[in-house]
Write a structure and sequence with these properties.
By secondary structure, the chain is of the alpha+beta class. It has two domains: 332 residues, PAS domain (Beta-Lactamase, 2-Layer Sandwich); 158 residues, Methyltransferase, Cobalt-precorrin-4 Transmethylase, Domain 2 (2-Layer Sandwich), CATH 3.30.950. Helices cover 39% and strands 27% of the residues. It contains eleven helices and 23 strands. Strands 5-4-3-2-1-8-7-6 form an eight-stranded antiparallel sheet. Strands 11-10-9-14-13-12 form a six-stranded antiparallel sheet, with helices on both faces. Helix 1 packs antiparallel against helix 7. The radius of gyration is 51 Å and the shape is rod-shaped. It starts with 5 loop residues before the first helix and ends in a 10-residue tail after the last helix.
Length: 539
């Protein structure tokens, strides 16, 4: 049997519950904060990237659509007999305004299966018109200003091979249009993309037409997107070659050919872009998820997206830093912080409720104490309480009210009560008070005076428990209702208290309103769990 201080148990549980609530509430608040903050940050990043890229993607699709509409228009002209390579003047009148208005179109080429070819391209502030006659191996070249005036004419003997036309190799008759590239054009000496279409004339000759765009012009004519200093939007191909980064003008025309992210320029000057492309390639070219990475303890996110899923020629990459979205994160963090604060407040409220409940239970325990200046008042107060773990009543010291004689059993009854108090958590023994709390007094014990009665009690305690235990006992006397009452106030002993009963030592503890004897096993368990400052072994 294991008996502990009820007050101590309440205090112990109170501390345990408070600690558990504190740990749980703080842990939940921290987990909620960081989990919600992480999700919120990811959402903000996705929304931020989406906002930045949607306009560019939409403009790209619109621009691609306009190019496709243009090539369809040219194809309709041809099918209706409006494009005739014998009338180059009409081409110049038709194409020069188009080349002037659409800055991204660099040139237009028309080729018959006979080898006859007409090409007009932008050349500085002029237009260069080249009409090639395969039989004569002769080109008629004109330099024309924007008003259509011929500035210069010349004839050049040369041989042109249709097989050299990259875009023509993949052209197909009776198709709406075909996108080609990017490829390096020998004529332009740059990265070029082309869109081509073909038709068959009434004389069964096949005609191919292509519109050419310099890659850098197509991409750099996009509407600029507002970017902070540590944000980048760039265009690349499926191999990770970067074609353009708005605002980066470190390339000459000859350098502009498909720069790889592994190039030292990116490694040194734009490590954020190089890292983003590397991770994208390592992640199997994921165009769905956002990639997170760090450079020098700074957080970055990158997203890659096909500019047009139906025509997956080019991708757009975007890199944003945590700095650029900190203001947005900060606003949302306030809400998350508020939620975490509510969790902490709920934990604090629960702790308050535990404290209130514990304190109530402590108050409910019998407050068995007697103050030196209020002996009579405190004894009266205790007499109104029921007997319990820390309070016991005895009618007499030695007198048996039933046999009307002094009786050792009467002395034994309250002495074991004293021992039990010493071994548990202390308590008050009122002698001269019956079980109903009525004051009967010790007069029937027959002592000459109060001092003799107190001396007798001291002697019995010293003999049966030990004189050294008297330091844990304070004795008070009071006359109440003309009856002499003795109160023994016992403190919890710092070492086990054994009661001698004949030749046997017995060990008592307080269990509820009674003193209970423990077995040897129970006694040992109690001693080593009760928290005595000094351990005394059984004799």
């Amino acid at each position: 049997m294991h008996v502990k201080s009820e007050r101590g148990e309440i205090l112990k549980k109170k501390k345990l519950y408070l600690l558990i609530i504190l740990i749980l509430s703080v842990s939940v608040a921290v987990v909620v904060y960081y989990t919600a903050a992480s999700k919120m940050r990811d959402r903000i990043v996705d929304e931020y990237i989406k906002t930045k890229t949607n306009k560019l993607s939409k403009e790209f699709k619109g621009r691609m659509q306009s190019y496709e509409n243009t090539i369809r228009l040219f194809s309709k002209w041809g099918q209706n007999g409006l494009i005739n390579l014998d009338d180059t003047a009409s081409f110049e009148r038709a194409f020069i305004p188009i080349l002037s208005d659409v800055k991204s179109i660099y040139g237009i080429t028309i080729i018959e299966n006979t080898g006859k070819e007409y090409e007009i391209i932008k050349k500085d502030s002029l237009f260069l018109s080249d009409f090639y006659f395969p039989r004569k191996k002769l080109s008629l070249i004109k330099y024309i200003d924007r008003q259509g005036n011929v500035i210069k004419n010349q004839k050049v003997n040369q041989s042109k091979s249709v097989s050299e036309k990259y875009w023509l190799k993949k052209s197909k008759v009776d198709t709406d249009f075909i996108w080609q590239g990017p490829y390096v054009s020998k004529l332009f000496n740059q990265e070029v993309i082309s869109i081509s279409s073909s038709w068959i004339n009434k004389d069964s000759s096949t005609v191919h037409i292509a519109i050419h765009f310099l890659l850098k012009d197509v991409f750099r004519t996009f509407t600029k997107i507002d970017l902070s200093d540590d944000e980048y939007i760039f265009l690349l191909n499926d191999y990770g070659d970067i074609y353009d980064i708005p605002g980066i003008n470190n390339f000459t025309d000859t350098e502009y050919s498909a720069y790889s992210s592994l190039n030292p320029f990116y490694r040194i000057k734009l490590p954020e872009v190089a890292k983003a492309v590397e991770m994208w390639l390592d992640n199997q070219k994921d165009t769905v998820n956002t990639v997170a990475f760090k450079i020098k303890r700074n957080n970055y996110w990158a997203k890659f997206k096909f500019l047009n899923k139906q025509k997956p020629f080019y991708l757009m990459g975007i890199v944003v830093s945590e700095k650029s979205i900190n203001s947005k994160i900060g606003k949302n963090n306030i809400q998350i912080l508020l939620l975490s604060t509510i969790i902490l407040l709920a934990g604090a409220l629960l702790m308050v409720l535990v404290i209130i409940r514990s304190n109530r239970r402590l108050r409910e325990l019998q407050k068995t104490e007697i103050r030196e200046n209020f002996i009579k008042e405190d004894i009266k107060k205790l007499a109104r309480l029921p007997e319990g773990k820390t309070l016991e009543f005895k009618s007499t010291i030695r007198y048996n009210l039933h046999t009307e004689k002094n009786d050792k059993a009467i002395e034994f009854a309250w002495i074991k009560g004293v021992a039990a108090f010493l071994n548990t958590e202390g308590g008050v023994l009122l002698i001269g008070v019956n079980d109903d709390g009525e004051f009967t007094g010790i007069e029937k014990d027959g002592f000459e005076n109060e001092d003799k009665a107190l001396l007798h009690i001291k002697n019995l305690v010293s003999k049966n428990i030990g004189v050294e235990y008297m330091k844990f006992i304070t004795m008070f006397t009071a006359v109440i209702e003309e009856k002499t009452i003795i109160a023994l106030v016992c403190k919890q002993s710092s070492k086990p208290a054994y009661m001698k009963n004949g030749g046997e030592e017995q060990f008592y503890v307080r269990v509820g309103p009674s003193s209970t004897k423990l077995s040897i096993t129970q006694t040992v368990e109690h001693i080593f769990t009760h928290g005595y400052k000094q351990i005394v072994t059984l004799h």
